[in-house]
Specification:
The chain is α+β, with helices and mostly antiparallel strands. The protein has two domains: 12-259, 3-Layer(aba) Sandwich (Aminopeptidase); 264-336, OB fold (Dihydrolipoamide Acetyltransferase, E2P) (Beta Barrel). Helix content is 20%, strand content 31%. It contains six helices and 18 strands. The protein has a five-stranded mixed β-barrel. Strand 7, helix 4 and strand 8 (187-191) form a beta-alpha-beta unit. Helix 4 (170-183) crosses helix 6 (222-238). 42% of the residues are buried.
């Protein structure tokens, strides 16, 4: 007789994912500290289930300083009733709860970045344990993952965007394009696979993933919330999970399909100082064009350093804080796909 060599994940769910109806509660991650010897970390979770049908995991708070998705997921938990569902919605409004509670990209408990922690470790740090549970318990039963991100406190994206891993073949590409079109946000970026991302965890478990990037800059924009919520509801109707008045009749926008192609589409600081952007969001830039200057007020006679774009493309994301250190991302570009 063989046994599963995997260590059991210590998280215990207060809700029964196999039962019909709407339930809310917490995933209890045991956490013994000086303040609370027998304590647990309360990760909010909800399920809305009605019989057989597609299973969708909708997640926000993967990064704790990205607030747009946390608001949208909380709204969906309040708004959607089981009689409007065929299948199951599993909803995590604050997936990395310690990070979301603190308003930080990474967990204050272990420095963990949840979207760099998959497939996780059931015997590891709190962030690794959360990643393991999401991949091997929640995504293992899901057909789709919707992971709601934004630029957080350090980056700002132009408008509402979607991201997806490059498809592996033409059939998967056609399916992905249909799903992204049904979500209907203005831009969809295709990007290479990264095994530590939630999107790759979904792929390993046989689910298809769509990630959003909704503004950012540590703010919440009402228009982006409305646009993303409408697109998400339309997508849920498109796959046959949601029906009724909540499903919009049309998508928010016609989607432009774009591609992010690795290092050439990014600009990074190589010096510590104050950065002056020389272009803005939405601009089309040429290879070799000046992107930013780094200034050095602590050495005022030192000339600023000018950084340049390595590739042509459209500016889709820009750093927000002016103070930078070597290694900080200042811009990221995308180019048209399917030309």
């Amino acid at each position: 007789m063989t046994t599963d060599p995997r260590v059991a994940n210590p998280i215990r769910s207060e809700i029964d994912l196999d039962s019909n109806g709407k339930q809310t509660g917490f995933l209890r991650l045991p956490h013994s500290v000086h303040r609370s010897a027998y304590g647990w970390i309360p990760i909010p979770i909800a399920t809305i289930r009605n019989g057989d049908g597609p299973v969708v995991l909708i997640m926000a708070g993967n990064h704790g300083d990205e607030y747009e998705g946390q608001i949208i997921v909380s709204q969906l938990i309040r708004e959607i009733e089981p009689e409007r569902v065929r299948g199951q919605l599993i909803l995590l409004p604050m997936a990395n709860f310690p990070a979301a509670q603190a308003g930080l990209r990474t967990s204050p408990l272990d420095g963990g970045n949840l979207n760099r922690a998959f497939p996780g470790n059931p015997a590891g740090t709190p962030t690794e344990v959360i990643a393991d549970y999401i991949e091997h318990t929640l995504l293992a039963r899901a057909d789709y993952l919707i992971d709601l991100h934004s630029g957080g406190s350090s980056l700002l994206y132009q408008g509402a965007n979607m991201l997806a891993i490059e498809p592996r073949d033409a059939e998967e590409g056609a399916r992905l394009r249909a799903l992204l079109g049904a979500f209907g946000l203005p831009k969809a970026f295709l990007h290479p696979e990264n095994p530590v991302h939630a999107a790759s965890a979904a792929r390993r478990q046989g689910a298809i993933s769509i990630l959003t990037e909704l503004g950012g800059g540590g703010t919440v924009q009402a228009g982006l919330l409305s646009e993303a919520r409408a697109g998400l509801l339309h997508l849920l109707g498109f796959i046959g999970l949601l029906h009724g008045a909540l499903v919009p009749e049309r998508v928010p926008a016609s989607t432009r399909f774009m591609r992010v192609s690795g290092a050439r589409h990014y600009v990074y600081a190589y010096d510590s100082g104050l950065y002056e952007p020389l272009v803005g969001l939405g601009e089309h830039v040429a290879a070799g064009q000046a992107a930013a200057r780094i200034h050095f007020p602590d050495t005022p006679l030192r000339e600023p350093v000018t950084l340049h774009f390595a590739s042509a493309g459209e500016v889709v994301c820009q750093r927000v804080p002016a103070m930078v250190q070597r290694g900080d991302c200042l811009f990221h570009l995308a180019e048209e796909a399917f030309q």
